[in-house]
């Protein structure tokens, strides 16, 4: 990337299994920073595609048991993404049950689980009946764009999509929970009636999970999830009356806001294998990943590679408000009296999902897991660029009218080039965000921490290093989300399974594989310039057409569906009428 990224390492080959910045020089130092305890920590990890339950020992945070299941996504129409809230809870209970069954082989039992933490997909919104406890509608996922019209209505009202950025750190976008709650109120009769009768509760996925685990005794969320709703004031860390009025949402519907790490209460649900255990940690999944990657100093940056990509850069105890489309968010608050740490974030809507699309929709890939094998067949993408803007572009563009393109095709283009271009699109989108992060916060970014399911793809990691010109440090944990949530829950006051001192220590089990850039500045500049040109061509593709008196395609389809007999009879009648008129 540009010269402002300091500390660039010498170009060279990929160095697998190296360790990066692990300040524990000896076990003695580790003992000084951790309280020795034999309790276990359980973590509910509720993601977009999978739900899992992991169990960690303390104080070394070794995962000793885990079980994960796939979570189905419902797509009623293009751009709409839903999930069944009841399936979420059934999956959580199943995962917890299966993980606990693994404990005896490790010399433990369920009674050894001292506390439980929760980490979840953010922005995804659920509304439910406070009386019956049943959902009033499916969960609307974070990437759902059905609220586009609602966004337009709100923007027309306040005249600026960034009107609330100074108080929330967020633009008015389909991405955030406030728009989803408003859409549900406006479009679902059952929700409107429940609101009128004051029995409607709303929240992000963490709130739904806690409500169910505690039989409705707790309706809570944490600051990381609340900061993603477009309803929380970053300064007061409470629901903002102006925002509630703007979106027409009653505060009584919403959960109370807490820190990430404190004793919230006991799990009381008879359906849960976790009954009787303490709840002491809640974090949005990307903030948990930031903590799990030990990005605890200003300027430290991580990227989680999943169906989407999520880059967060720690900005310390003061929020940085973006001028280039990045989001200002709460990174973590490790206790009611602990300082609030902030981050700026850029989200890539389509990362691994592009590979799934190549597999399931256009059938270029037999399996998305084979992307590395297919892409390695060719040395380059053959000047093919893939902009996967299936539902628009997120940061730093925030263009809902963008749509996906594959450009640069020639008669020599093979499917391998397209697969490699899909991998490179993930890397280019990451660079887009890193460019902005430096401009916004001014901190030196001299490496990128990486985790997530897609990081098992070695070619992707090397392409990423080559695209940004920086070393990429891949966590050997692969997914730091549950690890971060475990630390958050374990260090809560009243639980005290560990003394977490992130600014002084790293944990000795945080190791990395290092990927170094093998490209030159000139090569990077040329390729990135072409990527920007491809992005420009994807913008403004969706144009809303005004209604006219002319027949639309739908009209023609309707007319063509009329029985042929009606058409013949009407035609004959018109002919008779015309002949009659001519005779007169």
UniProtKB/TrEMBL annotation:
One GO MF term: glycerol kinase activity
Keyword Kinase: yes
GO BP of this protein: glycerol catabolic process; glycerol-3-phosphate biosynthetic process; triglyceride metabolic process
Annotated ranges, domain Carbohydrate kinase FGGY C-terminal: 307-491
Keywords attached to this entry: ATP-binding, Glycerol metabolism, Kinase, Nucleotide-binding, Transferase
Superkingdom field: Eukaryota
InterPro entries: ATPase_NBD, Carb_kinase_FGGY, Carb_kinase_FGGY_CS, FGGY_C, FGGY_N, GK1-3_metazoan-type, Glycerol_kin
EC number(s) reported in the record: 2.7.1.30
Keyword Ligase: no
Start and end residues of each Carbohydrate kinase FGGY N-terminal domain: 41-292
Pathway: Polyol metabolism; glycerol degradation via glycerol kinase pathway; sn-glycerol 3-phosphate from glycerol: step 1/1
Cross-referenced PANTHER family: GLYCEROL KINASE, SUGAR KINASE
UniProt-recorded name of the protein: glycerol kinase
Originating species: Drosophila ananassae
Upper classification of the organism: Eukaryota, Metazoa, Ecdysozoa, Arthropoda, Hexapoda
